[in-house]
Design a protein that fits this description.
Blueprint (H helix, E strand, L loop, with lengths): L6 H4 L16 E6 L9 H17 L3 E4 L4 H7 L8 H12 L13 E7 H13 L4 E7 L3 H8 L13 H7 L3 H13 L2 E4 L2 H10 L6 E2 L14 H20 L11 E7 L9 H17 L5 E7 L4 E4 L1 H33 L6 H4 L2 H13 L11 E3 L6 H9 L9 E6 L14 H7 L2 E3 L9 H8 L4 E4 L3 H9 L8 E4 L6 H17 L2 H13 L6 H19 L41 H4 L15 H10 L52
Parallel strand pairs: 1-2, 1-3, 3-4, 4-5, 5-6, 7-8, 7-12, 8-11, 12-13, 13-14
Antiparallel strand pairs: 9-10
Enzyme class: transferase
EC number: 2.4.1.11
Protein name: Glycogen [starch] synthase
C-alpha cells in the first residue's frame, strides 16, 4: 500500500484562491466536538488553540458547541450574555426543553457546521437526514477502528486493503460506533483528516477519500529577547536536576553536567505510542555507552498515566533526604559565613582550622550517613496497582535496566501527568519539556502527534516516525529534518528490530554531540515553529469551509479545485554551516575533552566550524512565506458590509486561546549550556 502524498491535499500552496471577498456577516460557523471546554485528549488542544485564528476570521459569528460539564464551566468558560437576539431565542428554546449549554434567525444566514469525531457525528447525520440548509464538515482525528486494530498488534499498514471492516468492528464490539463514524464521513459535504497517513487509513476503513487534509497547529509565541528560550531551557533543566539529585540519592555517582534527559509522554498505549521500541533502544544504548566507556549518562522519563494508589515511599524519601542535605548545608554555610565576617571585621585573615567545629562535622557526618542506600533507586515513582503485569515494568525487568551504578541509562517511570503542585516533581508539562534535551516518540499509530510538535515550538529536538502525521508533514516541508532536530524513524518499511537499531543509532549519535552542537540544533529546531503556527495551518480549515459552502449552496458560492505541481511550495534546505550529526563533525569521539565542552574562543569557539545564526535564520525566513490567507469564496448574493469584530463569543461551553505574538526573528545562540 503506497504512502504517496498529494501536494494539493497537504502542502500550503495547494490551497485554492477565491476570486471575490466573502464577508461572513451573513454566515455563521458552528464547531461541534465532545472536547469543547472538556479536556480529554488532543482534540481539546486543537480547538482551544485554533479558536483565536478562527475568531479573527468569523468574528461574533463563530460558536463552539460541546457538552455541559460543571468542571468545564467553572474552570474554562466565561459566561456571557448571547450577543444576538437570534442566539438568545435559540438558547432559551433549548433550555426549556432540558438542553444545557438552531431556526431562530429571520434572515436565514448561511450556516457552516464543523463536526469533530464520531461522538459529534450524529448531529451531522441528523442535519442531512432532515435536509437542513447547513454546509457540513466532518473531521476524523483518528479512525475508531484503526486505533483498535493497532492496539491489537496486527500488521496494520500492510493490510489496510484487506480488512473486512464490518467483521473487525463487530469482533471488537464497536460496530455501532464505527457505523456512526462511517455515516458521518459519507454524509458530510466535506470530509477531512489531520494527516496524509490518516487520509489513507480513512479511505480504506471508512470507504471515503478525504477532500482535504487539515494539519494540527499551535499558537506559537515568538521571543523578542535574544537567547530567551535557551535561558528557559537552562532554568527548567535545573528543576529537573533537583528531582534527579533526590531520586538517585546514595547512587549519585554520575556527573549531572554530563547527563542528558530524554522523555516520552502521552496516553498509555504501550505499542501504539512506541514505548516498547523506546525501551529496547535504551537497553542497546546502555550497552553502547558502557562498552565505549562514555562519561555521558542518560535519564529517560516515561510520563504515561496508569493505575496507581499513591506515591512510592522510597521516592518521597529521596526528596526528603535531598531537602535535609540542603538545609544542613545552609546551616553550616551560615555559621561559616558569620565567623568569616567577624574575622574580617577585626582586620585579620580567618584561621581555617577554627572555621568549622566538631559540632559542624558531626552534623555533616549524620547527613552523609542518611544518604546511604542499600537498594537501587526506584524505577517507578508510584505504587502500581498491577505492578506484575504492567507492560513498561515487565519490559524493564526483561532488559535489566534497574538504575544500577554500572548503567549509563537510568529509567524513571512517572505514571501520572505532571503538575506544578506535585510534592515529587513540581513542574508542569511545558516546563518539563523545556528542561529536557530530546523527546522520543517512536509511535506506530499516531494520526498527528502533538507531543513532537510541542517540542518543536519550544526548541527541543524530537524523534518521530514516518507513520505519524507530524513526521510525514515535516518530511514533506524540510529537505533534511535531522539537521533541524527532527529525527524521522522508519517504522513503515523496516522490521521492528531494524527500527530499534535505527532508533538506537539516533540516540547514540545525540549522546555524542557536544554542548555547542546541541545549542545550535535547538536554535534550528525553534525556527521551525513558524511551520506549525495556526497563522499558516489555519488556511487548511478555511479552505475546507469554503469547499463546504460551495457544495451546500452552489447557487451562491463557487469552488474550482486545482492541482499544483511539485515545484511549488517551500522546503527548508539543509543548513550549510555546522553539521548536526557528530558522524559528520570533527567532534565525533564519545570521549570529549574539556576544550570541546568549553571552547576557548567564546561560547561557540571562533576556531571551530563556521556558524552564523543570523545568516541561517535569514535563509530560513526566506524559505517560509508570510501567511497569505486564501481569498474567500465568491458570493453572488449581497451581504452586509460592516467590519467584523476581532473577538469571538463562543457561548457558555467554549474555550478560547490567548492571542499569539507577531512573527519575528527567533533568538541567536545562547550561552554555553547543556
Amino acid at each position: 500500500m503506497p504512502l504517496s502524498r498529494s501536494l494539493s491535499m497537504s502542502s500550503l500552496p495547494g490551497l485554492e484562491d477565491w476570486e471575490d471577498e466573502f464577508d461572513p456577516e451573513n454566515a455563521v460557523l458552528f464547531e461541534v466536538a465532545w472536547e469543547v471546554a472538556n479536556k480529554v485528549g488532543g482534540i481539546y488542544t486543537v480547538l482551544q488553540t485554533k479558536a483565536k485564528v478562527t475568531g479573527d476570521e468569523w468574528g461574533d459569528n463563530y460558536y463552539l458547541v460541546g457538552p455541559y460539564t460543571e468542571q468545564g464551566v467553572r474552570t474554562q468558560v466565561e459566561l456571557l450574555e448571547p450577543p444576538t437576539p437570534e442566539l438568545k431565542r435559540t438558547l432559551d428554546s433549548m433550555n426549556s426543553k432540558g438542553c444545557k449549554f438552531l431556526a431562530q434567525n429571520e434572515e436565514k444566514p448561511y450556516v457552516v457546521a464543523h463536526f469533530h469525531e464520531w461522538l459529534a457525528g450524529i448531529g451531522l447525520c441528523l442535519c442531512r437526514a432532515r435536509r437542513l440548509p447547513v454546509a457540513t464538515i466532518f473531521t476524523t482525528h483518528a479512525t475508531l477502528l484503526g486505533r483498535y486494530l493497532c492496539a491489537g498488534a496486527v500488521d496494520f499498514y500492510n493490510n489496510l486493503e484487506n480488512f473486512n471492516v464490518d467483521k473487525e468492528a463487530g469482533e471488537r464490539q464497536i460496530y455501532h460506533r464505527y457505523c456512526m463514524e462511517r455515516a458521518a464521513a459519507h454524509c458530510a459535504h466535506v470530509f477531512t483528516t489531520v494527516s496524509q497517513i490518516t487520509a489513507i487509513e480513512a479511505q480504506h476503513l471508512l470507504k471515503r477519500k478525504p477532500d482535504i487534509v487539515t494539519p494540527n497547529g499551535l499558537n506559537v509565541k515568538k521571543f523578542s529577547a535574544m537567547h530567551e528560550f535557551q535561558n528557559l531551557h537552562a532554568q527548567s533543566k535545573a528543576r529537573i536536576q533537583e528531582f534527579v539529585r533526590g531520586h538517585f540519592y546514595g547512587h549519585l555517582d554520575f556527573n549531572l553536567d554530563k547527563t542528558l534527559y530524554f522523555f516520552i509522554a502521552g496516553r498509555y498505549e504501550f505499542s501504539n505510542k512506541g514505548a516498547d521500541v523506546f525501551l529496547e533502544a535504551l537497553a542497546r544504548l546502555n550497552y553502547l555507552l558502557r562498552v565505549n566507556a562514555s562519561e555521558q549518562t542518560v535519564v529517560a522519563f516515561f510520563i504515561m498515566p496508569a493505575r496507581t494508589n499513591n506515591f512510592n515511599v522510597e521516592t518521597l524519601k529521596g526528596q526528603a533526604v535531598r531537602k535535609q542535605l540542603w538545609d544542613t548545608a545552609n546551616t553550616v554555610k551560615e555559621k561559616f559565613g558569620r565567623k568569616l565576617y567577624e574575622s574580617l571585621l577585626v582586620g585579620s585573615l580567618p584561621d581555617m582550622n577554627k572555621m568549622l567545629d566538631k559540632e559542624d562535622f558531626t552534623i555533616m557526618k549524620r547527613a552523609i550517613f542518611a544518604t546511604q542506600r542499600q537498594s537501587f533507586p526506584p524505577v517507578c515513582t508510584h505504587n502500581m496497582l498491577d505492578d506484575s503485569s504492567d507492560p513498561i515494568l515487565t519490559t524493564i525487568r526483561r532488559i535489566g535496566l534497574f538504575n544500577s551504578s554500572a548503567d549509563r541509562v537510568k529509567v524513571i517511570f512517572h505514571p501520572e501527568f505532571l503538575s506544578s503542585t506535585s510534592p515529587l516533581l513540581p513542574v508542569d508539562y511545558e516546563e518539563f519539556v523545556r528542561g529536557c534535551h530530546l523527546g522520543v516518540f517512536p509511535s506506530y499509530y499516531e494520526p498527528w502527534g502533538y507531543t513532537p510538535a510541542e517540542c518543536t515550538v519550544m526548541g527541543i529536538p524530537s524523534i518521530s516516525t514516518n507513520l505519524s502525521g507530524f513526521g510525514c508533514f515535516m518530511e514533506e516541508h524540510i529537505a533534511d529534518p535531522s539537521a533541524y532536530g527532527i529525527y524521522i524513524l522508519d517504522r513503515r518499511f523496516r522490521s521492528l528490530d531494524d527500527s530499534c537499531s535505527q532508533l538506537t543509532s539516533f540516540l547514540y549519535s545525540f549522546c555524542q554531540q557536544s554542548r555547542r552542537q546541541r545549542i545550535i540544533q535547538r536554535n534550528r529546531t525553534e525556527r521551525l515553529s513558524d511551520l506549525l503556527d495556526w497563522k499558516y495551518l489555519g488556511r487548511y480549515y478555511m479552505s475546507a469551509r469554503h469547499m463546504a459552502l460551495a457544495k451546500a449552496f452552489p447557487d451562491h458560492f463557487t469552488y474550482e479545485p486545482h492541482e499544483v505541481d511539485a515545484t511549488q511550495g517551500y522546503r527548508y534546505p539543509r543548513p550549510a554551516s555546522v553539521p548536526p550529526s557528530p558522524s559528520l563533525s570533527r567532534h565525533s569521539s564519545p570521549h570529549q575533552s574539556e576544550d570541546e565542552e568549553e571552547p576557548r574562543d567564546g561560547p561557540l569557539g571562533e576556531d571551530s566550524e563556521r556558524y552564523d545564526e543570523e545568516e541561517e535564520a535569514a535563509k530560513d525566513r526566506r524559505n517560509i512565506r508570510a501567511p497569505e490567507w486564501p481569498r474567500r469564496a465568491s458570493c453572488s448574493s449581497s451581504t452586509g458590509g460592516s467590519k467584523r469584530s476581532n473577538s469571538v463569543d463562543t457561548g457558555p461551553s467554549s474555550s478560547l486561546s490567548t492571542p499569539t505574538e507577531p512573527l519575528s526573528p527567533t533568538s541567536s545562540v545562547g550561552e554555553e549550556r547543556n
